[in-house]
Amino acid sequence: MPAPTKQTEKSNFYDSDTSYGWISIALHWLTATLIIALWIIGKSISSAEPDSIDARRSLHVSIAATAWLVIFLRVLWRLRSGHPHVRGQSDVIHRVAKIAHYASLIAVLAMLVSGPVMVWARGFPVGIFGALSIPGPVGKDPGLAALALGVHSGAAALLLAIVLLHIGGALKHLMFHTDDTIVRMLWPAGNDGDRK
Predict the structure, then answer these.
(1) N or C: where does the chain have the smaller number of CB atoms within 10 Å of the terminal CB?
(2) Whole-prediction pTM value?
(3) Is 29 inside a domain boundary?
């Protein structure tokens, strides 16, 4: 039996033309969990009792600041790795998936930038669980804070729509197709033969 090539050894970690690797899979699920948690907490701020609004906002900002680098790396990784065309997926569905994916990355980037800008423009540092404060490069600016809030809210709404489309597409593949779309977001192809 021939020794595995360097490409084969790495294939489980990195994306191939037709499969996601472990890095993409881990970043996908970690980022999805973080963004869903942030969205739920963020939406709860406006409906919270007045005495708990600051606590919820602080929790939202703390989790976001802690997760910022992970989410940013997720965006960079996807831009670097492209979009595998998994076995059995039509060209049309692949193109739709790519468009939705890039739109979600744009929405996430908008939120990554507008979130801290909004906090700083309100005249506060970005606090991380009361243990660390990151002062802003801008001073208090109500106009900038309002703009950042609009971008943040709009990006959150866009992301929610894309996530619902994504979940619907995943369920469609799970129930009505025989391609590898769902499997490849849970487990990478093991070798080059699996990718054909």
Answers:
(1) N
(2) 0.72
(3) yes
